[in-house]
Structures are given as C-alpha cells and as structure tokens.
Amino acid sequence: MGKGLIAAAIVAALCGCSTAKGSFCAVSSPLHLSGKAVDMLSDEEARAVLAYNRKGAKLCGWRP
C-alpha cells in the first residue's frame, strides 16, 4: 500500500464522527497496519493513525 493511499485512508477515516449512514462507531473500525506499512509511515501519518485508534477506543470501546 503506497504512502499516498495510506494518507488518504487516514484522512477519510478521521473526517467527522457522524455520516449519513450512522455514527462513527457504526461505520468505523480500528486501523491495523502491517509492520512494513508502519515502517513506511511518516511521523505525521503515524500520529494520525494513533489518534484515530485512540478516538475509537474512547468513543467505541475498541481494544488493542
């Protein structure tokens, strides 16, 4: 998965808590990246993934 595609997926996932189809928890799931994908992330992208997963843990009860 290329860096641009990963960044686009992160941005799309972080957009708002509610959509036309339902709440954040109803339409989202944790981001699980392979070790290779993690190695390719910039610091900013890694922070975005971490923030997204922390948001899901807080709002939806996601667990590692």
Automatic annotation (TrEMBL):
First and last residue of the signal peptide: 1-20
Entry annotated with the keyword Signal: yes
Keyword terms: Signal
Domain of life from the UniProt record: Bacteria
Keyword Signal: yes
Stated name of the protein: Lipoprotein
Organism name: Mesorhizobium dulcispinae
